[in-house]
Amino acid sequence: MGVGHGHGHQPAAASGHAGARHRWRLGVSFGLIATFFVVELVVGIISGSLALISDAGHMAADVVALGAALVATKIATRADSSGRRTYGSYRAEVFASGLAVLMMLGVAAYVVVEAIGRIGAEPDVATGPMLVVGFLGLVVNVIALLLLRSGAQDSLNVKGAYFEVIADTAGSVGVMVAGGLILATGSSIWDTVVAFAIGAFVAVRAVMLGREVLAVLGQHVPAGLDIDEVTGALGGLDGVRDVHDLHAWTLTSGMNVATAHLVLLDGVDGAGVLREGQVLLRERFQIEHATLQIEGHRSAACDAVTW
């Protein structure tokens, strides 16, 4: 005896999906950063500043990542018409986060390589444009950070965009610091030093986000969930003799899934245990989608499966 939820996948916006709720924040941030990217790239080329060009490169990655996040959020809201995506298209947002990671790593690598190539050289850098554009970039990024901050707590997709903007904010600060140091010392080496620091910072952020993306794609136990505690809680339900084949994973941000087999004592009402188990998983462990299978005894078929 088992239970299978009859989950017709409704559009995410209707179901309160985290990514869909914050789509407008992504849209406004995308518009701001895309506009400023053009300004920063042009000024960076004219001024000859590697720090400015590197920050523009990272901002270009932001534009792509934010655009992908917007598209992925839209895809995730679509109901499946093929009949083959039984969990819907929610994971599109996780793939968008993975793209953000790759973009960040690519920009970081480019900046570091360029910075190393400039060691020993003293390129002519116009500090005035650096300071002005760095300040304007800081303003744009702070606005985007304020827009995305709350959504980053709910959605891995928005978190990827948020991390991108954090790195951009650091880049804007770095550009201003480099311009100030060049003015103070007369040496353009600070442009290269700051560019290297920006690249290293972006790489660290990318690795942090990448670990979260891989954990979701690898179907690891959701962050903050103790699988032994879940097993103990299900085993503590009245009438449950044993719990096995328990699996829990994250479909996308805010959507945790679990399956388990519950072996019952003789004469126990299986329907009642199912209801209690689903309520327990939903209210105590925030697992909305749980499929529980009821068994009168631990079957040989279960023991024969080794994965």
From TrEMBL:
Keywords recorded for this protein, A-Z: Ion transport, Membrane, Transmembrane, Transmembrane helix, Transport
Among InterPro entries, the record links this protein to: Cation_efflux (IPR002524), Cation_efflux_CTD (IPR027470), Cation_efflux_CTD_sf (IPR036837), Cation_efflux_TM (IPR058533), Cation_efflux_TMD_sf (IPR027469), CDF/SLC30A (IPR050681)
Cation efflux protein cytoplasmic domain: residues covered: 223-295
Domain Cation efflux protein transmembrane, chain residue ranges per copy: 28-217
Molecular function GO terms recorded = zinc ion transmembrane transporter activity
Look up the signal peptide feature and give its range. Answer: none
> Does the record bear Metal-binding in its keywords?
no
Enumerate the subcellular locations listed in this protein's record, separating them with semicolons: Membrane
Q: Which Pfam families match?
A: Cation_efflux, ZT_dimer
For whether the record's keyword set contains S-adenosyl-L-methionine, the answer is no
UniProt topology in membrane: Multi-pass membrane protein
According to the UniProt record, one GO cellular component term is:
plasma membrane
- The protein's predominant localisation is membrane
Q: Which family does it belong to?
A: Belongs to the cation diffusion facilitator (CDF) transporter (TC 2.A.4) family. SLC30A subfamily.
Protein name, entry field: Cobalt-zinc-cadmium resistance protein CzcD
Recorded source organism is Nocardioides simplex
